[in-house]
Amino acid sequence: MFKKGYNPENQLKAWLFLLPALAIVVLFSIYPLYRSFFMSFQKGTLINPRFAGLENYEKVLTDPVFYKAMGNTGLFAFTVVPIGLILSLAIAWIIFEKVKHKSFFETIFFLPYVTSTIAIGIVFRYFFNGSYGIVNYVLGIFGIPGLNWLDDVDLSMPTLIIFGIWTSLAFNIIILLAGLRNIDKAHYKIAKMFGADSWEIFRRVTFPQLIPTITFLLTVNLISSFKVYTQVYALFNGQPGIAKSATTAVFYIYDKFHIAGRPGVAMAATVILFIVILLITFIQNKILKRMGR
To answer: What is the pTM assigned to this prediction?
Structure first.
């Protein structure tokens, strides 16, 4: 029997075991957040900072480039996440239901996730090259004129979105396949006993059971999409598209910090982006909880 007032969570040994993990979280997560917030109220260089009040926030919120970056980021996130998730769900369902050697295909789809995004970006630059790219070659077979995917202001974001959808598939498919395996097979047997067809089984059994998995993927993918940077850097060879047409929020922060040498402005943009992601994630979770009821 436990003594009155005993709480295992408050034991010294428990905190000693947690200390290494807590130290890593504080050092690499909490402290950078605090440091970013503190630096957002400073101006000057990293070596010689000076207090600036809300000046950095005023500069960011009056900068049209920042609004363009946030607009591109929102367009990327709210296009890539739903399309990528729908395609991933369809592919995962086909592999789970129709394919015999599932482990082989799981390995194939997981390879892009463990491959460097920079390396994949180099391949995609070849695919989308306006002069000798494979995409334009395939379009030419069907009599469709080739497009200047990488060097056209109007095509920079569509190209980035296509790349983003493709890179999101691997992780989504693996997680969805894991979710499909966790569904009790007895549900399918009962549904078939009552004469349900494949679509009815998917709609009434599979999809409701996958709601927690889909909710997790929506949250993770949305946060990841709002932090998109590597895909832009890889696809456009270190630039945010032609005439900065594909600049995103994180690329804006990178440009202000490393290129322009204005860390205070960059950190102000970082804090604003953090608040936006926090609000969108909160709203999304509220909506999903209501839908779940």
So the answer is: 0.84
CA distance linking residue 167 with residue 250, whole number of Å: 18
Task: Give alpha helix (H) positions in the chain.
Answer: 12-25, 31-39, 55-61, 64-98, 102-114, 117-127, 134-141, 156-181, 185-193, 198-201, 207-209, 211-226, 230-235, 249-254, 263-292
Distances (CA, A) of 186 to 38, 63, 85, 249: 55, 58, 26, 47
Query: Strand, helix or coil at 44?
Result: strand
Question: Around Cβ 228, how many Cβ atoms within 10 Å?
Answer: 23
Which residue, chain included where needed, has tokens 């408050």? 10
Do residues 184 and 162 lie in contact, with contact meaning Cβ atoms separated by under 8 Å? Answer: no
Predicted confidence (pLDDT) per residue in 91-101, tens digit: 888 888 777 77
Segment (H or E) for 183 = none
Residue 169 in contact with residue 81, Cβ under 8 Å?
A: no
